[in-house]
Amino acid sequence: MIKLEGRMQRIGRLKWMLLGGWLLVLWMGHLQPAPAAGGSLKNAQSAFTFHAVSLDETGEAMTPQRSGARAILLSLILPGAGEWSLGHRRMAKIFLGAEVALWAGYFGSLAYAEVLRRDYQTFAALHAGVNPAGKDDQYWIDIGNANNIYDFNEKRLVQRNLDAVYMNTREYYWQWDAEENRYRYVDLRLKQHRWKRRATFVIGGMILNRILSTVDVIRIIRKEKKERETGRRAMLFSSYFWHPARGDVVQLHFTWTF
Fold this sequence. Notes:
This protein is mainly alpha-helical. It has a domain at 1-52 and 233-241 and 252-258. Helix content is 58%, strand content 12%. It has helices at residues 2-28, 68-77, 81-85, 89-128, 137-142, 149-158, 179-230; strands at 44-51, 233-243, 247-257. The protein has a 3-stranded antiparallel sheet with strand order 1-2-3, covered by helices on one side.
């Protein structure tokens, strides 16, 4: 009789240990057990799932549901913004840095070209007696092709290009004081043209930067989608019920899919 009571006590302690372990598993999984129709914990079952979580370079978990169209639009507007919205901060900083550098190069090229334009116009006024007011681009090209207005008009008359002849007035008059100064003027004007053209090339770089950022965002979206579709999945399923022959029964089932 004493042995039987001791055995029953051990069975009772084992039952409560199993029940406590089961409740601990539920608490760790933040799950609520689903009670049976009778309202007791008997015949209750619970399950929770572990999913493979992808981390970006910052160590933060990447949320699977993010707007790919929004990220693409952001990259088209501002390169790197799409990567930033997806959590890829390192690539975002690269594209954003390139964009800042391109804008700086664009405004810098235009500013330096304007400085050179004022320089060659001032140089022509000093060494050729040019009146710079109201002159178009073609005039600044023409005064570098001849030492004075008379030589220029004579060449155009020989070519029968009457539309290119300038009126012999003070407004259009020029006379270079030295041949080397005319060459120096041509060099300044061509240098200004090159810097102005560089600003145009920078615009092409901005377009290319947006294309590359958009392609990178599409690559990230496809990569994350593939990882979600082929990601590993683990499930822990637990159940607790009462069996007529075995009494209280606790079962744990673990599955791993990859």
